[in-house]
């Protein structure tokens, strides 16, 4: 399969990590630059690649150039989805970026715009939505479903049948018991152990995880 040219939307840490995926042997994507709304980055380089302009320029890219949104924030878990919604690009303009060292079962489903980093494991009947980020070392066991725009930080472990709804953010090292549902836009603090369903838009932390009063 031929190599695909890609522009990344956002040049922060996640963007730089995504560049490194594409530089791994066996990658089928080649990043040619970034689009970023920070005016201080105009005409600068990040990870050796040019910042080509603001994210709004994505619509004017050549039709053979794919895009991937690489912004994420535990403080604003819907940030990536908002960016995608604001741009309004057709789904065919987005691509998937998967590290060659990820281990995905043949029946794994990945939505467009999703980024899968090294060491991610998906075992059986795993469904991952659009514009999801799976950071290094995540484990998704049988029948897990991850909704659009969700972010799983490094080392998240989801037991069988877990459902992560859209735009949820799970911090590094989170463990989730089988059959649990994480509500849309919920944030789970790093290292937490989740034993019960979590309502939408709440912040839970601890072992076992409990709601954090804002």
From TrEMBL:
Keyword Repeat among UniProt keywords: yes
Keywords: Repeat, Transferase
NCBIfam families linked to this entry: NeuD_NnaD
Any single Pfam family the record assigns to this protein: Hexapep
Protein name per Swiss-Prot or TrEMBL: Acetyltransferase
Keyword Transferase assigned: yes
Transmembrane segments: none
Entry-linked Gene3D superfamilies: 3.40.50.20, Hexapeptide repeat proteins
């Amino acid at each position: 399969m031929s190599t695909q040219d890609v522009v990344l939307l956002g040049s922060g840490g996640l963007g730089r990590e995504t560049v490194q995926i594409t530089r791994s042997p066996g990658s089928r994507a080649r990043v040619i630059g970034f689009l970023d709304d920070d005016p201080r980055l105009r005409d600068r380089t990040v990870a050796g690649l040019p910042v080509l302009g603001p994210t709004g320029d994505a619509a004017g890219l050549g039709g053979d150039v794919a895009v991937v949104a690489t912004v994420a924030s535990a403080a604003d878990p819907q940030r990536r989805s908002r960016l995608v919604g604001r741009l309004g690009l057709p789904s065919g303009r987005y691509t998937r970026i998967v590290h060659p060292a990820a281990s995905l079962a043949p029946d794994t489903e990945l939505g467009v715009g999703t980024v899968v980093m090294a060491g991610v494991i998906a075992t059986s009947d795993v469904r991952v939505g659009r514009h999801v980020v799976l950071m290094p070392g995540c484990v998704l066991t049988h029948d897990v479903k991850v909704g659009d725009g969700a972010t799983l930080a490094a080392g998240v472990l989801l037991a069988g049948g877990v459902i992560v709804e859209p735009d949820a953010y799970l911090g590094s090292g989170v463990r989730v018991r089988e059959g649990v549902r994480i509500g849309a836009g919920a944030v789970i603090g790093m290292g937490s152990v989740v034993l019960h369903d979590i309502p939408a838009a709440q912040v839970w932390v601890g072992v076992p995880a409990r709601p954090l009063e804002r």
